[in-house]
Design goal:
alpha/beta
């Protein structure tokens, strides 16, 4: 995942180009690693559907390949259109959040039933019955803990719960694993992702980031979870080099090497 933050680091046009390239390169990398053992095969997750919609509309010749990649599990499409401030959406706009992904779901036959939200620390309560009606079953929230304070983490991080809507009936399974990037990815991103902030010439931005190392040792994170009496035998982490950066092409190879060397934990 690469945090899709339109207008934050660059022009809308350049952000669109970068995120469309990430889909194209992500599918290439998924195809390149398709024979890796389960867990190390690359799957590109564009996080929101806006980049796919832009690619869909601007490059009609790619539509068949995009649907094929979704069917193969090489491209994973989450339900939301953008990382939105849902508190300013009207009732009608809340339904439009899922219009494009419902169409893609019909064409591919692959459920798009996970709503991910990055950076923005909150979701309007009224979105719950809308999601339930649109067939969305799960919410994964990745807030910006630096700018949103820590109040939202109180007894929530890593503790999934059923979030019941204001109608008292509709519900989604909500999980907030923590902040939106594993520390290892942000450390790498400082030198490989952030340098492309504000680069107005898209020809100078690499199509992918490849250094030969993805730093997938999550030992410190596991020790932290054990010390906090974490009750589950799995955890979820996001790998985000920085806002609006090329994808990390080292990840599947690093995961493959880790899983071949260590029996536990297995990284997927």
């Amino acid at each position: 995942m690469i945090l899709c933050d339109i207008g934050y680091t660059n022009t809308h046009k350049n952000a669109e180009r970068l995120h469309k390239n990430n889909i194209i390169e992500g599918i290439k990398l998924a195809e390149k690693t398709k024979d890796f053992l389960s867990g190390a095969r690359f799957v590109w997750n564009p996080e929101v559907s806006w980049p796919l919609e832009r690619l869909w509309e601007s490059n009609p010749e790619k539509r068949e390949g995009l649907i094929d990649a979704i069917k193969k599990g090489q491209l994973s499409i989450d339900a939301s259109y953008l990382n939105l401030n849902t508190s300013i959406c009207s009732d009608e706009e809340l339904f439009h959040v899922f219009k494009f992904t419902r169409n893609i779901q019909k064409m591919s036959g692959v459920p798009s039933d996970v709503f991910q939200q990055f950076d923005i620390p909150g979701i309007s309560w009224g979105l719950i019955p809308v999601m339930a009606q649109e067939g969305i079953k799960y919410v994964i929230s990745w807030p910006n803990t630096d700018r949103a304070g820590n109040a939202h983490t109180h007894e929530i991080d890593g503790r999934p719960f059923w979030w019941v809507g204001p109608d008292g009936e509709s519900k989604v399974l909500f999980l907030q694993p923590g902040c939106y990037a594993n520390s290892g990815s942000m450390q790498k991103g400082w030198t490989t992702g952030r340098p492309w902030f504000g680069q107005r010439d898209p020809e100078k931005v690499p199509l992918t980031i490849k250094t030969g190392n993805a730093n997938v040792d999550f030992t410190n994170k596991l020790v932290e979870l054990e010390n906090s009496d974490y009750p589950y035998d799995f955890t979820v982490l996001s790998w985000t080099l920085w806002d609006n950066s090329p994808l990390d092409a080292d990840v599947p190879f690093a995961v493959k090497a880790w899983n071949e060397k260590y029996a536990y934990p297995k990284i997927i």
